[in-house]
Amino acid sequence: MMIILLGPPGTGKGTQAAAIASRYGIPHVSTGDVFRQNLRQKTPLGLKAGAFMDRGELVPDSLVLELAESRLKEPDCQKGFLLDGFPRTAPQAEALDAMLAAAGKKIDHVLFLTADDSVIVKRLSGRRVCGSCGTSWHLDFNPPPPSGRCPCGGEVIQRADDLAEAVEVRLKVYRSLTGPLAAYYEKRGLLRRVPGDASPAEVEARIKTALETPP
Ligand code: AP5
Fold first, then answer.
1. What's the CA gap between 11 and 117, in Å, rounded?
2. Which residues surround ligand 1 with Cβ inside 6 Å?
3. Domain residues of the chain, as ranges?
4. What's the whole-model pTM score?
5. How far does residue 141's CA lie from ligand 1's centre (Å)?
6. Which atom of ligand 1 is nearest to the CA of 31?
Protein backbone atom coordinates (compact mmCIF):
# COMPACT_ATOMS: atom_id res chain seq x y z
CA MET A 1 0.00 0.00 0.00
CA MET A 2 1.36 3.44 -0.95
CA ILE A 3 -0.20 6.11 1.23
CA ILE A 4 0.28 9.85 1.66
CA LEU A 5 -0.68 11.46 4.97
CA LEU A 6 -1.57 15.08 4.31
CA GLY A 7 -2.79 17.79 6.68
CA PRO A 8 -1.90 20.93 8.59
CA PRO A 9 0.82 20.87 11.24
CA GLY A 10 -0.29 19.34 14.53
CA THR A 11 -3.29 17.41 13.22
CA GLY A 12 -1.71 14.17 14.43
CA LYS A 13 0.06 12.91 11.30
CA GLY A 14 3.11 11.63 13.19
CA THR A 15 0.98 10.05 15.92
CA GLN A 16 -1.27 8.24 13.41
CA ALA A 17 1.56 7.35 11.06
CA ALA A 18 3.10 5.04 13.64
CA ALA A 19 -0.21 3.14 14.01
CA ILE A 20 -0.88 2.91 10.26
CA ALA A 21 2.66 1.77 9.47
CA SER A 22 2.44 -0.95 12.07
CA ARG A 23 -1.07 -2.10 11.01
CA TYR A 24 -0.16 -2.45 7.33
CA GLY A 25 3.51 -3.43 7.77
CA ILE A 26 4.87 -0.53 5.72
CA PRO A 27 7.69 1.92 6.55
CA HIS A 28 6.82 5.36 7.96
CA VAL A 29 8.72 7.91 5.87
CA SER A 30 8.68 11.34 7.53
CA THR A 31 10.77 14.03 5.86
CA GLY A 32 10.50 16.14 9.05
CA ASP A 33 11.89 13.28 11.17
CA VAL A 34 14.77 12.71 8.74
CA PHE A 35 15.65 16.43 8.76
CA ARG A 36 15.49 16.55 12.59
CA GLN A 37 17.67 13.44 12.88
CA ASN A 38 20.21 15.06 10.54
CA LEU A 39 20.04 18.25 12.57
CA ARG A 40 20.76 16.36 15.82
CA GLN A 41 23.76 14.74 14.12
CA LYS A 42 24.80 18.14 12.68
CA THR A 43 25.14 16.76 9.13
CA PRO A 44 25.40 19.29 6.24
CA LEU A 45 21.79 18.41 5.23
CA GLY A 46 20.54 18.93 8.80
CA LEU A 47 22.32 22.25 9.21
CA LYS A 48 20.95 23.55 5.88
CA ALA A 49 17.39 22.41 6.67
CA GLY A 50 17.44 23.48 10.35
CA ALA A 51 17.43 27.21 9.67
CA PHE A 52 14.25 26.95 7.56
CA MET A 53 12.55 24.57 10.01
CA ASP A 54 13.15 26.70 13.11
CA ARG A 55 11.45 29.67 11.42
CA GLY A 56 8.50 27.51 10.39
CA GLU A 57 9.34 27.80 6.69
CA LEU A 58 9.59 24.97 4.20
CA VAL A 59 12.95 23.45 3.33
CA PRO A 60 13.69 24.14 -0.38
CA ASP A 61 12.23 21.59 -2.80
CA SER A 62 15.66 20.64 -4.19
CA LEU A 63 16.86 19.40 -0.75
CA VAL A 64 13.58 17.62 -0.02
CA LEU A 65 13.45 15.86 -3.38
CA GLU A 66 17.01 14.61 -3.13
CA LEU A 67 16.22 13.12 0.27
CA ALA A 68 12.86 11.63 -0.79
CA GLU A 69 14.21 10.09 -3.97
CA SER A 70 17.03 8.30 -2.19
CA ARG A 71 14.75 7.13 0.69
CA LEU A 72 12.09 5.74 -1.67
CA LYS A 73 14.72 3.71 -3.52
CA GLU A 74 15.62 1.79 -0.37
CA PRO A 75 14.57 -1.88 -0.29
CA ASP A 76 11.99 -1.49 2.51
CA CYS A 77 9.97 0.98 0.38
CA GLN A 78 9.63 -1.24 -2.68
CA LYS A 79 6.28 -2.83 -1.71
CA GLY A 80 4.70 0.15 0.03
CA PHE A 81 5.22 3.13 2.31
CA LEU A 82 3.46 5.80 4.30
CA LEU A 83 4.60 9.32 3.44
CA ASP A 84 4.20 11.80 6.32
CA GLY A 85 4.93 15.45 5.51
CA PHE A 86 5.84 14.81 1.88
CA PRO A 87 4.83 16.04 -0.67
CA ARG A 88 4.20 19.56 0.61
CA THR A 89 4.28 21.69 -2.56
CA ALA A 90 2.98 21.24 -6.11
CA PRO A 91 6.51 20.68 -7.52
CA GLN A 92 7.09 17.99 -4.85
CA ALA A 93 3.79 16.25 -5.74
CA GLU A 94 4.62 16.33 -9.45
CA ALA A 95 8.14 15.02 -8.82
CA LEU A 96 6.74 12.21 -6.66
CA ASP A 97 4.33 11.21 -9.45
CA ALA A 98 7.22 11.15 -11.92
CA MET A 99 9.45 9.10 -9.56
CA LEU A 100 6.71 6.53 -9.02
CA ALA A 101 5.66 6.40 -12.68
CA ALA A 102 9.28 5.69 -13.67
CA ALA A 103 9.13 2.64 -11.39
CA GLY A 104 5.65 1.59 -12.63
CA LYS A 105 4.01 2.51 -9.30
CA LYS A 106 1.34 4.90 -8.08
CA ILE A 107 -0.19 6.24 -4.88
CA ASP A 108 -3.20 4.24 -3.58
CA HIS A 109 -4.63 6.60 -0.95
CA VAL A 110 -4.16 10.14 0.30
CA LEU A 111 -5.41 10.58 3.87
CA PHE A 112 -6.22 14.20 4.65
CA LEU A 113 -6.28 14.81 8.42
CA THR A 114 -8.21 17.93 9.42
CA ALA A 115 -8.64 19.96 12.62
CA ASP A 116 -9.57 23.54 13.59
CA ASP A 117 -6.75 26.02 14.17
CA SER A 118 -7.63 26.20 17.90
CA VAL A 119 -7.04 22.43 18.23
CA ILE A 120 -3.81 22.68 16.23
CA VAL A 121 -2.41 25.52 18.36
CA LYS A 122 -3.24 23.64 21.57
CA ARG A 123 -1.55 20.47 20.33
CA LEU A 124 1.58 22.21 19.07
CA SER A 125 2.06 24.50 22.07
CA GLY A 126 1.75 21.51 24.44
CA ARG A 127 4.01 19.17 22.50
CA ARG A 128 7.31 18.19 24.10
CA VAL A 129 9.93 15.97 22.46
CA CYS A 130 13.10 14.16 23.38
CA GLY A 131 16.03 16.19 22.07
CA SER A 132 17.94 12.97 21.59
CA CYS A 133 15.62 10.27 20.13
CA GLY A 134 12.65 12.42 19.05
CA THR A 135 9.95 10.68 21.16
CA SER A 136 6.94 13.00 21.41
CA TRP A 137 4.53 13.78 24.31
CA HIS A 138 1.85 16.33 25.08
CA LEU A 139 1.68 18.26 28.39
CA ASP A 140 -2.08 17.58 28.79
CA PHE A 141 -2.88 14.48 26.72
CA ASN A 142 0.24 12.35 27.18
CA PRO A 143 2.57 14.01 29.69
CA PRO A 144 6.36 13.55 29.47
CA PRO A 145 8.28 11.99 32.40
CA PRO A 146 8.26 14.39 35.40
CA SER A 147 12.05 14.05 35.61
CA GLY A 148 12.32 16.01 32.34
CA ARG A 149 14.35 13.11 30.93
CA CYS A 150 13.31 10.62 28.26
CA PRO A 151 13.81 6.91 29.11
CA CYS A 152 16.70 7.05 26.59
CA GLY A 153 18.40 9.67 28.79
CA GLY A 154 17.75 12.60 26.42
CA GLU A 155 16.38 15.93 27.62
CA VAL A 156 12.67 16.69 27.12
CA ILE A 157 12.45 19.95 25.16
CA GLN A 158 10.03 22.07 23.12
CA ARG A 159 10.60 22.10 19.34
CA ALA A 160 11.73 25.56 18.18
CA ASP A 161 9.01 25.48 15.50
CA ASP A 162 6.33 24.84 18.15
CA LEU A 163 6.84 28.36 19.59
CA ALA A 164 3.89 30.67 18.83
CA GLU A 165 5.63 32.80 16.18
CA ALA A 166 6.82 29.79 14.17
CA VAL A 167 3.41 28.06 14.44
CA GLU A 168 1.81 31.13 12.88
CA VAL A 169 4.28 30.96 9.97
CA ARG A 170 3.72 27.19 9.57
CA LEU A 171 -0.04 27.63 9.34
CA LYS A 172 0.33 30.39 6.71
CA VAL A 173 2.81 28.33 4.70
CA TYR A 174 0.51 25.31 4.94
CA ARG A 175 -2.47 27.28 3.61
CA SER A 176 -0.63 28.77 0.66
CA LEU A 177 1.61 25.88 -0.47
CA THR A 178 0.40 22.56 0.96
CA GLY A 179 -3.38 22.97 1.33
CA PRO A 180 -3.89 23.15 -2.47
CA LEU A 181 -2.53 19.58 -2.76
CA ALA A 182 -5.85 18.32 -1.37
CA ALA A 183 -7.56 19.43 -4.61
CA TYR A 184 -4.70 17.92 -6.66
CA TYR A 185 -5.39 14.47 -5.16
CA GLU A 186 -9.17 14.90 -4.92
CA LYS A 187 -9.36 15.31 -8.71
CA ARG A 188 -7.84 11.83 -9.04
CA GLY A 189 -10.28 10.30 -6.56
CA LEU A 190 -7.49 9.50 -4.07
CA LEU A 191 -8.37 11.85 -1.21
CA ARG A 192 -9.95 10.51 2.00
CA ARG A 193 -10.86 13.25 4.50
CA VAL A 194 -10.45 12.19 8.13
CA PRO A 195 -11.42 14.57 10.96
CA GLY A 196 -8.51 14.53 13.43
CA ASP A 197 -10.33 16.25 16.32
CA ALA A 198 -10.90 13.17 18.48
CA SER A 199 -8.86 10.87 20.69
CA PRO A 200 -5.89 9.16 18.99
CA ALA A 201 -7.74 5.80 19.15
CA GLU A 202 -10.88 7.27 17.54
CA VAL A 203 -8.86 8.93 14.76
CA GLU A 204 -7.05 5.63 14.19
CA ALA A 205 -10.43 3.86 13.79
CA ARG A 206 -11.59 6.56 11.32
CA ILE A 207 -8.43 6.07 9.28
CA LYS A 208 -8.91 2.30 9.19
CA THR A 209 -12.46 2.78 7.92
CA ALA A 210 -11.30 5.32 5.31
CA LEU A 211 -8.62 2.97 4.00
CA GLU A 212 -10.76 -0.15 3.98
CA THR A 213 -14.00 1.29 2.57
CA PRO A 214 -14.09 1.63 -1.22
CA PRO A 215 -14.70 5.24 -2.38
P1 AP5 B 1 7.02 17.95 10.06
O2 AP5 B 1 7.80 17.21 11.07
O3 AP5 B 1 6.46 17.19 8.91
O4 AP5 B 1 5.94 18.75 10.87
P5 AP5 B 1 4.40 19.11 10.58
O6 AP5 B 1 3.81 18.65 9.30
O7 AP5 B 1 4.36 20.56 10.83
O8 AP5 B 1 3.69 18.24 11.57
P9 AP5 B 1 3.93 18.10 13.09
O10 AP5 B 1 5.03 17.12 13.36
O11 AP5 B 1 4.09 19.44 13.74
O12 AP5 B 1 2.52 17.58 13.54
P13 AP5 B 1 1.78 16.22 13.27
O14 AP5 B 1 0.62 16.44 12.37
O15 AP5 B 1 2.75 15.14 12.90
O16 AP5 B 1 1.19 15.99 14.72
P17 AP5 B 1 1.71 15.05 15.90
O18 AP5 B 1 1.23 13.66 15.68
O19 AP5 B 1 3.17 15.24 16.17
O20 AP5 B 1 7.86 19.13 9.43
C21 AP5 B 1 8.60 20.02 10.24
C22 AP5 B 1 9.37 20.97 9.32
O23 AP5 B 1 10.28 20.24 8.49
C24 AP5 B 1 8.51 21.77 8.32
O25 AP5 B 1 7.95 22.94 8.90
C26 AP5 B 1 9.56 22.09 7.25
O27 AP5 B 1 10.42 23.11 7.66
C28 AP5 B 1 10.38 20.81 7.18
N29 AP5 B 1 9.83 19.85 6.20
C30 AP5 B 1 9.42 18.57 6.45
N31 AP5 B 1 8.98 18.00 5.33
C32 AP5 B 1 9.12 18.92 4.34
C33 AP5 B 1 8.81 18.94 2.96
N34 AP5 B 1 8.26 17.87 2.36
N35 AP5 B 1 9.05 20.08 2.25
C36 AP5 B 1 9.61 21.17 2.83
N37 AP5 B 1 9.91 21.22 4.15
C38 AP5 B 1 9.67 20.11 4.89
O39 AP5 B 1 0.86 15.67 17.12
C40 AP5 B 1 1.12 16.96 17.63
C41 AP5 B 1 0.87 16.95 19.15
O42 AP5 B 1 -0.50 16.65 19.41
C43 AP5 B 1 1.68 15.89 19.92
O44 AP5 B 1 2.03 16.41 21.17
C45 AP5 B 1 0.70 14.71 20.07
O46 AP5 B 1 0.98 13.95 21.23
C47 AP5 B 1 -0.64 15.44 20.17
N48 AP5 B 1 -1.74 14.68 19.55
C49 AP5 B 1 -1.72 14.01 18.36
N50 AP5 B 1 -2.93 13.47 18.10
C51 AP5 B 1 -3.72 13.82 19.13
C52 AP5 B 1 -5.10 13.57 19.45
N53 AP5 B 1 -5.89 12.85 18.62
N54 AP5 B 1 -5.59 14.10 20.60
C55 AP5 B 1 -4.81 14.82 21.44
N56 AP5 B 1 -3.49 15.08 21.20
C57 AP5 B 1 -2.96 14.59 20.05
1. 9
2. 9-15, 31-32, 35, 52-53, 56-59, 64, 85-86, 88, 92, 123-124, 127, 136, 138, 141-142, 161, 170, 199-200, 203
3. 2-115+178-212
4. 0.95
5. 16
6. 31
Contact 194, 8 (CB under 8 A): no
DSSP 87-128: --SHHHHHHHHHHHHHTT----EEEEEE--HHHHHHHHHHEE
pLDDT classification of 213: cutoffs 50, 70, 90: confident
**Domain 2-115+178-212 belongs in CATH node 3.30.230.10:** no
What's the gap between Cα 110 and its chain centre? 13
Task: For residue range 25-70, list pLDDT tens digits in order.
Answer: 999 999 999 999 999 999 999 999 999 999 999 999 999 999 999 9
